[in-house]
Amino acid sequence: MTSLKERLHADVVTHMKERNKTALTTVRNVLGEIETREKSGKTPIELDDAQVTSLLQKEAAKRRETAKIYADAGEAERSAAEIAEAEVIEAYLPRALTAAEVESIVDEVIAGLRSEGVEPGPRQLGAVMKPVTSRIAGRFDGKAVSEIVRGRLT
Fold first, then answer.
1. Which pTM does this prediction carry?
2. Among 42, 47, 82, 98, which has the highest number of CB atoms less than 10 A from its own CB?
3. pLDDT tens digits for 12-23?
């Protein structure tokens, strides 16, 4: 199975052949951002798929935010361009979970803690959030997950 970064590199060639300028520019920008992150700091690192996914989510959100600013300023063409870039980036992200799926994962983790003899309460927020966060892995809003967990623990 290829990594997300390898898929992005392969898609640069595909977008060149298709003459899809928007997608090509967007993917190149994202790859540049990935390389910048990998080379920043004292020692170079290699980003794994989870870190690349996180970076892609931030890049897509940034473009959505910019599109809103352009739309509010009456720049419909620029707004549409930013939305198009966000959609290209979002195509690389994993399928988002529904609220019901997240609630099911939270309930499973809480049931697992109960089976280990721990009665989850508000003080065990961290004990529940850690496994839930690892299973959700950026496919649902973190604040909303935290609210769901708090609701289940109280």
1. 0.70
2. 82
3. 999 999 999 999
